[in-house]
């Protein structure tokens, strides 16, 4: 990697991050130029300095935080041009561990290790074995977009996130093949933090189990009523209404059972999709 890429990458990130924001639905809370208040507090404490608003963060502090917390955390100096910026921007937006997971998923099948968000020797070896960095940037950005779509906050910040990823993808691919990158501007919402804590929950299976159980139960009752009809028919001309009850119970049981099984299939499939988007292991 060329050393100057760090400053160039940070300049691009800062365009996406904008200035001070404190959106009520942003899990990052109060944020200035991409640095959240909690991160700034930890930085100041580490320097044995008094806590203050992230609004007061200086450019020197900002650059130091980006260097230590994000650039070094993803070992960007060891990444190829273009890939370094893409992984760095993802780390700022969703955390270093998550951004490394996107890289690891994008490197498969060359990468055969655990998707653990650790930039270890296996990840770097797989990266060194991958020659088409242009295509790799595309896969990383695709993984990132799928992850953000699986968050509850997608409806609020999705437009901004999509614009941010489009810009990151374009610059990353340009740097990967040595061409000039296009410029882009700030899009509201793109600076919001996208973290796994805001992931959507998979549909519950309780409703399907209840429906299936109800269907089985209705079928059992229908059988019992039919048995009663067989006993009463020789002594009564009222067997028709019992027949109707049996039919209704049987049909209701079938509908509940089929509906319950169908919903369970949907819930299981949706759970697998969400787990895949969030880079979680499906049990």
UniProtKB/TrEMBL annotation:
| Source organism | Aminobacter aminovorans
Q: Which residues form the TtsA-like Glycoside hydrolase family domain?
A: 11-95
Gene3D superfamilies under this entry? Chitosanase, subunit A, domain 1
Q: Where is the Peptidoglycan binding domain?
A: 99-164
The record ties this protein, via Pfam families, to: Glyco_hydro_108 (PF05838), PG_binding_3 (PF09374)
Tell me what this protein is called. Predicted lysozyme (DUF847)
Transmembrane annotation, as ranges:
241-263
InterPro entries attached to this UniProt entry: Lysozyme-like_dom_sf (IPR023346), Peptidoglycan-bd_3 (IPR018537), TtsA-like_GH18_dom (IPR008565)
Which keywords label this protein? Membrane, Transmembrane, Transmembrane helix
């Amino acid at each position: 990697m060329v050393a100057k890429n760090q400053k160039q990458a940070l300049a691009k990130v800062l365009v996406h991050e904008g200035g001070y924001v404190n959106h009520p639905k942003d899990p990052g809370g109060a944020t200035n130029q991409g640095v959240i208040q909690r991160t700034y507090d930890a930085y100041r404490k580490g320097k044995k300095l008094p806590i203050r608003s992230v609004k007061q963060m200086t450019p020197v502090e900002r650059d130091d935080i980006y260097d230590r917390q994000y650039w070094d955390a993803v070992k960007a100096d060891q990444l190829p041009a273009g890939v370094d910026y893409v992984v760095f921007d993802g780390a700022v937006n969703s955390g270093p561990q998550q951004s490394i997971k996107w890289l690891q998923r994008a490197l498969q099948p060359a990468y055969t290790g655990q998707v653990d968000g650790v930039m270890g020797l296996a990840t770097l070896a797989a990266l060194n074995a991958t020659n088409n960095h242009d295509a790799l940037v595309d896969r990383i950005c695709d993984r990132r977009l799928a992850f953000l779509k699986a968050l509850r906050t997608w409806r609020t910040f999705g437009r901004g996130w999509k614009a941010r990823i489009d810009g990151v993808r374009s610059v990353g691919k340009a740097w990967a093949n040595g061409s000039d990158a296009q410029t882009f501007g700030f899009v509201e919402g793109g600076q919001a933090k996208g973290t796994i804590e805001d992931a959507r929950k998979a549909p519950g299976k309780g409703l399907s189990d209840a429906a299936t159980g109800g269907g089985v139960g209705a079928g059992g009752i229908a059988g019992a009523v039919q048995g009663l009809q067989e006993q009463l028919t020789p002594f009564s001309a009222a067997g028709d209404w019992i027949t109707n009850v049996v039919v209704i119970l049987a049909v209701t049981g079938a509908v509940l059972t089929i509906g319950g099984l169908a919903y369970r299939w949907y819930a299981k499939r949706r759970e697998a999709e969400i787990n895949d988007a969030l880079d979680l292991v499906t049990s």
